[in-house]
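Section 5.1 Outputs to date
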Amino acid sequence: MKFTHFCCTALLAGACCSHAAGEALLSANFDDTICAESRDGDGDALITAGLTESGRNGTAGLWVTSGMVETENGTELFYSPVIYKAEDNFSSRAGKMEFFINFKNFPADNRDFLLPIAGVTDWEILSGAEWALEHADEYAFCALERKNGKFRLLFAEYRGRVKHDLTGFASPAHQKFIIAAPAEVKAGQWYKIQLLWQNNGKTRKLYLNDQLIAEGNCTFADPALVPHARQVVAGGVIRRQQPLFPCVIDDFRIIEVEEE
C-alpha cells in the first residue's frame, strides 16, 4: 500500500460546452504520474487526500476503504474518497458511470455490510469523511451488500434526510429506488461495473462484466438521477462502525450517453 495523501487528476472534457455521446465527461485512472492532486477543468484543486495501491495492468488504483492502519502515532482509520464537482462532469438526465473494482478480501466474521463504491450526492462530502452524511437530501450510489452470507450488487438512490444503521439505511422519512441482483464475487479478482441512466433519468440499468444484471424505471416524481447533484464521489464508507476491508477501484469514468 502506498500511503500518499494525494489523489488523482481528473481528465475532463472542456467545461461549459456540449458533449458528444460516448465522450468521457470525467476520467480518472489514479496513475502515480498524475497522483499529485485532483483538479477540475479550470485547474482548481478539489482535494489533496487519498491512498493509492496497485491497480489494473500494473498501474495505480485507489483504495475504496483501507481499514485499520498502524502508523507512528498509533492505529488510524483511512478513508479514501475521491471527490469531484458534479458541474460539467455529470448529467442527471442521461449518463453512464463505469469503473473496475477488486475486493481484496472480505470481513472474516461474516457480518452483514453495505459498501458504497461510487456515486453522486447533493451534499459536500469532506475528504476523509464517511460517504453518506445525514445532511444529504439526494444521493445515489453503486454498492456491494452482504446479508445473511449472500452478496448482491445494487444501484440505489435516496431522497430526503436519511438515517442509517450499521448495515445500511433504515429510516421511514425518505424515498428510495433500488435495482439489485445477486452477485458472485470473489476476493482478489477484478470486476467491471457500469451504471446507466437514460430517459430523463427514469430508465436505470446495472451491468457486471458487461452483462446486464438488473434494470428498472425510477418511480420518483422527478426521475432525474440526483437532480441537484453537487459532487461525484469514488470510494469511501458509510460510517466508522462499518467493517472496513481493502478494495481497490481503477479506471473510473462518467460518460455522456444519448437520451432514449
